[in-house]
């Protein structure tokens, strides 16, 4: 009887003991994804950007035909073709920014020009708000040393035809894009900026 009683007590105690909760599994931490590597810059970006800056002003593109579209009548000619009896003419106004002119040779756009106002060679430390936007952030009147920092590599410096040794030509050519830019300088100051077809940029007296 005592054995049966003890067995009953053990069973009763077992029934009263609360069941132990099942062990909670540790949370699984997802691995942190590794960000993809940045793509390497494409080769020739500088040259490509330069060609884009030299190739057009707004909708006016170097090499494009000019003179027969309805909107071309808004441009004002300088009368060079009649005066020189040639096929070269200068235009301004139209859709050109104020202070910029355009050379047209054989009825095709060949070059854009920016000349300063007032006396040439006057130093201007910052680009005037009214000045037309030129390639590479250049402006007439800026310091030549600062201009050289903004130009792509490969600039050729040559003596100016009229004001040497006090002045030079700074010429950069993109042979692949067939475009060029030239600065005229005097006493360390940029006095003129023009760009377009390399043969047109070589004309030191405009249409002459």
TrEMBL record:
Region (Disordered), start-end ranges: 21-46
Superkingdom, according to UniProt?
Bacteria
Name of protein: Lipoprotein
The positions making up the signal sequence are 1-22
Keyword line: Signal
Q: Which regions are flagged for Pro residues bias?
A: 28-39
């Amino acid at each position: 009887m005592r054995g049966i009683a003890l067995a009953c007590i053990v069973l009763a105690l077992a029934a009263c003991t609360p069941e132990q909760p099942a062990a909670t599994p540790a949370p699984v931490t997802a691995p942190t994804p590794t960000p993809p590597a940045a793509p390497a810059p494409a080769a020739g970006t500088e040259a490509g950007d330069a060609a884009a800056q030299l190739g057009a002003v707004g909708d006016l593109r170097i090499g494009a035909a000019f003179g027969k579209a309805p909107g071309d009548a808004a441009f004002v000619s300088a009368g060079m073709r009649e005066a020189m009896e040639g096929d070269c003419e200068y235009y301004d106004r139209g859709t050109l920014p104020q202070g910029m002119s355009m050379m047209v040779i054989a009825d095709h756009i060949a070059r854009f020009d920016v000349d300063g106002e007032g006396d040439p060679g006057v130093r201007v430390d910052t680009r005037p708000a009214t000045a037309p936007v030129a390639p590479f952030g250049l402006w007439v009147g800026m310091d030549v040393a600062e201009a050289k920092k903004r130009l792509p590599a490969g600039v050729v410096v040559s003596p100016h035809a009229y004001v040497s040794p006090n002045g030079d030509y700074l010429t950069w050519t993109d042979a692949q894009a067939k475009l060029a830019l030239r600065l005229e300088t005097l006493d360390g100051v940029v006095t003129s900026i023009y760009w377009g077809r390399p043969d047109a940029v070589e004309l030191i007296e405009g249409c002459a």
